[in-house]
Design goal:
This protein is mainly α and 81 residues long. The chain has one domain (2-73). It contains four helices and no strands.
Length: 81
């Protein structure tokens, strides 16, 4: 369990910090770190039988996935460089 908590803290804090960056270059990496942390959240909540939190991890994963699609998969608009 300690293993997953270390990665939850590492990826989660990095993702949240990057969402607050004023640089679009750094900001777009928030969803990557958020998605990297989700398996550890899922494991931790499932193994401790926290079913409400386990369900919420899927909502967070979906939200980070939207950011991933927007920042990494979508075609850049003409005004974006």
């Amino acid at each position: 369990m300690m293993f997953s908590q270390i990665f939850i803290a590492l990826f989660g804090c990095t993702a949240v910090a990057l969402t607050q960056s004023s640089s679009p270059v750094f900001n777009r990496w928030a969803c990557i770190f958020g998605l990297l942390g989700q398996p550890f959240w899922m494991y931790a909540t499932y193994s401790s039988e926290q079913w409400g939190m386990f369900g919420i991890t899927f909502v967070y994963t979906w939200a980070w996935w939207i950011g991933f699609r927007r920042h990494w998969l979508a075609k850049p608009r003409r005004w974006q460089k």
